[in-house]
């Protein structure tokens, strides 16, 4: 999945000279939390509802002397951390997390073509898990070695089941946990079959 698959293309951008109070009113009207700021068609900044709420406050991040009548360029964040439509979703999400920001404008050939937010990335993660599809969730722990996933997938296929999605997680460098969604309503039956084949099934548990 790429950024272009989850971004909002119809972006509401504002001018850096727009008064801060008007920006906040527009946020409330449009129910938008982040505005890219364009000057001469070029991205020069971004502002969030959090930035605006610091105006006139005593928060450490507040800029002294700035009021809601001042232009938004006084509080906009610059330089702007951006992403590209063809960037993988997980890589862009990592950048969002690394810089602790809520949104990234999407730039292609120097032009603003979209915006992507933390909510968009969360929705992408949910979609990647396949949770919207009718399937059974399994967690299987295996030794972290080449061919481990292939062996598990082969066994599940041999048993007559189809895997709809796979995620991985690990708390131990020697062990990897595969979180699978399998096209069946007989999750406990499949779990028992995998255990009989020598796999360590973490979920579903034998007893809830």
General description of the model:
The chain is α+β, with helices and mostly antiparallel strands and 208 residues long. The chain has two domains: 3-125, CBS-domain, CATH 3.10.580.10; 131-203, ACT domain (Alpha-Beta Plaits), CATH 3.30.70.260. It is 29% helix and 27% strand. The protein contains six helices and eight strands. The protein has helices at 20-30, 49-53, 89-99, 118-129, 148-158, 187-196, and strands spanning 34-39, 42-48, 103-108, 111-117, 136-143, 163-172, 175-182, 200-203. A four-stranded antiparallel β-sheet has the order 6-7-5-8, covered by helices on one side. It has a two-stranded antiparallel sheet with strand order 1-2. Strand 1 and strand 2 form a beta hairpin. The longest helix has 12 residues, at 118-129. The chain is elongated. The mean pLDDT is 92.
- Tally of DSSP β-strands: 8
What is the domain total for the residues?
2
CATH architecture grouping of the largest domain:
Roll
User: What proportion strand?
Assistant: 25-35%
CATH fold-level name of the largest domain: CBS-domain
Helix content: 25-40%
The sequence of SSEs as H and E is: HEEHHEEHEHEEHE
**Contiguous helical run count:** 6
Q: Give the class-level CATH name of the largest domain.
A: Alpha Beta
| Sequence of strands across the biggest β-sheet | 6-7-5-8
Q: Strand pairing plus helix content: what structural class?
A: alpha+beta
């Amino acid at each position: 999945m790429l950024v272009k698959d989850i971004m909002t293309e119809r972006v509401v951008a504002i001018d850096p000279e727009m008064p801060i109070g008007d920006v906040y009113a527009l946020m409330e009207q449009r129910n938008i939390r982040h505005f890219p700021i364009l000057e001469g068609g070029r991205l020069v900044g971004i502002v969030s509802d959090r930035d605006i709420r610091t105006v006139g406050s005593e928060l450490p991040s507040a800029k002294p002397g700035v009021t809601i009548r001042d232009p938004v360029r006084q509080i906009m964040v610059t330089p702007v951390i951006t992403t590209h439509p063809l960037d993988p979703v997980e890589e862009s999400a990592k950048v969002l997390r690394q810089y602790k920001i809520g949104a990234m404008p999407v730039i292609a050939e120097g032009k603003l073509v979209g915006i992507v937010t933390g909510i968009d990335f969360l929705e992408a993660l949910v979609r990647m898990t396949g949770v919207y599809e009718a399937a059974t969730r399994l967690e299987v722990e295996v030794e972290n070695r080449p061919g481990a996933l292939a062996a598990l997938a082969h066994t599940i296929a041999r048993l007559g089941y189809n895997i709809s999605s796979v995620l991985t997680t690990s708390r131990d460098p020697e062990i990897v946990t595969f979180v699978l969604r399998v096209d069946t309503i007989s999750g406990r039956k499949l779990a028992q079959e995998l255990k009989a084949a020598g796999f360590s099934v973490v979920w579903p548990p034998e007893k809830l």
